Fold:
Amino acid sequence: MTKIAIAIHGGAGPDSDFIKQHIKEYKEGLKEAINEAYAMLEQGSSATDVVEAAIKNLEDNTLFNAGKGSSLTEKAEVEMCASIMNGFDLKCGAAAIVKNVRNPIRLARQIMEKTKHIYLGSIGAAEFARELNLPMEPDAYFITERQFESYEQTRKKLNDNGQQLAIEQLEKKHGTVGAVALDIRGNLAAGTSTGGTDFCRQGRIADSSMIGAGTYANNDTCAVSTTGEGELHMQYVTAFHISALMEYKGMSLREACHFLIQEKCKHINGDMGLIAVDTKGNLVAEFNTSRMHRAMKSSTQDLIVEIYPK
Ligand code: ASP
Structure:
């Protein structure tokens, strides 16, 4: 039987009381998304369709920082970023600083398929979504009570300290969702979607929308979706790096992921995580944080749904 495989993530970073209090809900959300996606793989859907569907599901779940439930910029606005890539023809699509589009991952897919470009941003991206009649929502749809409270806490901390506190000294708050899949025809795909980092500057673009940093898929090697501090994934071009280590150094998927996060980036004081699948359907989750929300399943691997290290 031809192998099928999928992994999804709901972000890597520091633990929090909220996460501890909602372990059940997080796991249920991950389980629902992966079961729906896995059923699609079993029915013969393409890896790209499956990745898009899994991410859409997580974007609609307010627990995750993507789509509805995205974090807020310093101007208290939601600006979202997403990308998707096919392993078989290296086609990809990405959208940055997107507002009002209910599912940025769907927009990224449409940019890949219906334009001669790869990357659209801001007003032009939203305009294209409107042209395609993708579901649009008012600003209020995306802003959850939890994210607003988090924004307010940060704002108060900055005010109380008379702006003395550098943004870097604040508690790290960020999140993302992502998916990688191998379909029945042996094609790989990867996708990532995020609301970005809490209280970031207006106009900040996340690694999650960057091909090579946040998302990469190549049928010769693997499909990767990253999470953590986006600026680090940009500096280390993480997702492509994994593929390159396999292609140029002959490393296995597991070795490449371990090497990059735990050895190459060991000296970095920053949150980094990723999920990946190779052409044989091997699945890997690698992270240096206290938690990464994740789920995996393949034709030879029973469902795993985890938040903390195993
Ligand atoms: N990488 C995302 C960003 O920098 C955040 C995350 O994955 O937690 O926007």
The first strand starts at residue 5 and ends at 13. The chain has one domain: 5-306. Residues 11, 13, 174-176, 194, 196-197, 206-208, 227-230 surround aspartic acid (CB under 6 Å). The chain has a mean pLDDT of 95.
